[in-house]
Amino acid sequence: MANTYSQIYLQFVFSVKHRQCLIPKYHKEELHRYITGLVQNRNAKMLAIHCMPDHTHIFVGFKPALSISDFIKEVKNESNEFVNQKRWTNHKFGWQEGYGAFSYSRSDIDRVVRYIHGQEEHHRKHSFAEEYRDMLQQFEVPFEEKYLFEFFDED
Length: 155
Hints:
The chain is of the alpha+beta class. It has helices at residues 25-41, 68-86, 109-117, 119-125, 128-138, and strands spanning 8-15, 45-51, 55-62, 100-104. The protein has five helices and four strands; from the N terminus they run E-H-E-E-H-E-H-H-H. Strand 2 (45-51) and strand 3 (55-62) form a beta hairpin. Helix 1 packs across helix 2 (68-86). The longest helix is centred in the middle third of the chain and has 19 residues, at 68-86. The chain is globular.
């Protein structure tokens, strides 16, 4: 019987609803562990994760049998429930609709992992809005400004 072989590496970027800063540093590691478990339970491999207060990056080794939209929908929904059950916020926690999904080659893995792990430093110089637009432009993804995440830190 023939097997299926693949190398699919995807970075997902998604934002807290209304871009609220609801992921405090003291809960970040627990959320990282939980989301990593969600990824692994779907037979994907977590390569890197970083939750900023208002958005998250995950970088995964992906299986071709998985649906990208179902995968990220389930990860976001279940992590919503987790945060709400933990009562980490005074408001109902939720991820904003939509996400970015960006593909990479095997030779990019180390660079992307360093980039994701360096989010704290990166965001000292660049806003999330700048970062996200840059990613869309770098990957030549056509977009309309009105359909991007809600960016309240604009000029």
